[in-house]
Amino acid sequence: MSEARGEPGSGTGAGARFFCTAGRGLERFLMREVRARLAATEVEYISGKVFFTTCSDLNMLKKLKSAERLFLLIKKQFPLISSVSKGKLFNEMQRLINEDPGSWLNAISIWKNLLELDAKKEKLSQRDDNQVKRKVGENEIIIAKKLKIEQMQKIEENRDCQLEKQIEEETLEQRDVTTKSENFQEEFQNDIEKAIDTHNQKDLTFRVSCRCSGTIRKAFTAQELGKVIGIAIMKHFGWKADLRNPKLEIFIHLNDVYSVVGIPVFRVPLASRAYIKTAGLRSTIAWAMASLADIKAGAFVLDPMCGLGTILLEAAKEWPDVYYVGADVSDSQLLGTWDNLKAAGLEDKIELLKVSVIARCVLWPMLYTARFMKLPGCPFGKSEGNVESDGNCHCLQKVLILLFLTFHLGKSLS
Amino acid sequence: MRLLTHNFLKCNEENCTGGYPLQIKLDDTSSENVKILEQDFNKEFVKNVLSKVDYDVLYNTAKQFGISLLFSYTSQHLEDEGFLNSIHHALFKIHIMEGSLICPQCHVSFPIKDGTLIYIYIYIYIYIYIYF
């Protein structure tokens, strides 16, 4: 478990403060998930972002399923007023950076701690995992790579780029699935190298990604603002800017409601999953939909229009002891699903059928007001349900499904 | 297609009543029409599934594949690993690759090609509750 150092500006005691970006409508799912999976406290959300405090390590953070990207929070404050002159605005932004260097350095040290802890665990577990899971040939390549990486950690920064190219070449020769999961691991390893290599704070290279929306966007471009911030950081902390391959990336989002500064924890967004080969529906939405079905162990779950099977894949990873059946009318989609299942190793859990779907609507008058039904914030209402229904009906949700279905089925049934 | 799926399928032609269970007819012309694939055995899962399947249908179908299950079982058998293993084998491990399912009433056939069943219609019933 990682801990935050007790420096001024951390403000949260035993945990670190993070925030996640999430698609509109998925914030409620993300809040629920963060409380359940990471035992997070001080959870709050603004449109598109969820802020929380947790002590979890990188492994648990990697498992978040409804978030797009994860960041360490440096600063969150009131929005910058864009109606003033340029000079005043730039001063405001410089104040953002200069005001509280403690919080910057604190966040960077937390980030390094997280990555170092993860590196140690990876080394320990992968030596065992490799022998059990993978075949001998790939085993050797992986061990050789790991040795190379360990050697590289002792050599200067310049050689890092070359190593990455070598690793990329090698991974191209391997199979798709292992390539993808290894690429993610390479990204993590590269992050770790870079974190460990910065013994001296002055060696840190950085890049600023600035996003603007709302009124500030009309007045200034994101590039302008990014430049101003970059210069202010260089002056204040003495780091160098590197646009191609920075060690540290700083993410700033300015809009009418807030100004947020953070460090992305992973280079790869959480929404791209290692186990989904070809994505159909966005993985975060697929997970959110699967979570709405309230799947319990021993249930049967049918997805009558599964497409590439994204919802079933997400569900099968999260709730494994369940019998899943996927169905689709199109052969090519079913072939795609089969490929995806093989790539994820889940062919024994999910059965595929080729079907055409007819929806019949039954109007059922209820003569008494039943319990209060919460309307889920799920943006798409695709039909999906348990074969063994338990009589619980989310009325408004089903109405949305009906509306969507009449539209969807009218188009695709031939 | 597994026998577990077969247990839940009935003929969905209009005006066909009693089209359950569908008869399995294996395709003798192809070389590998039944495959046995390994699957991890999960005791609780098998017990859960067993409570939901129609056991007589399962018994008859398994007989067709040369697997003799117990004719009926009691709650004592639910604790017996051997019994659960045989159920697991029958339900999950047998995959029908080539063949067809034929309705006993109207004789409509649903082909199984390359392990995937082509089943003409699935009906989804959407219940809209109106609150007064």
UniProtKB/TrEMBL annotation, chain B:
InterPro entries: Trm112, Trm112-like
GO terms for MF: protein heterodimerization activity
GO biological process: rRNA (guanine-N7)-methylation; tRNA methylation
Pfam family, one: Trm112p
PANTHER family: MULTIFUNCTIONAL METHYLTRANSFERASE SUBUNIT TRM112-LIKE PROTEIN, UPF0315 PROTEIN-RELATED
Family that this chain belongs to: Belongs to the TRM112 family.
Name under which the protein is recorded: Multifunctional methyltransferase subunit TRM112-like protein
UniProt source species: Piliocolobus tephrosceles (Ugandan red Colobus)
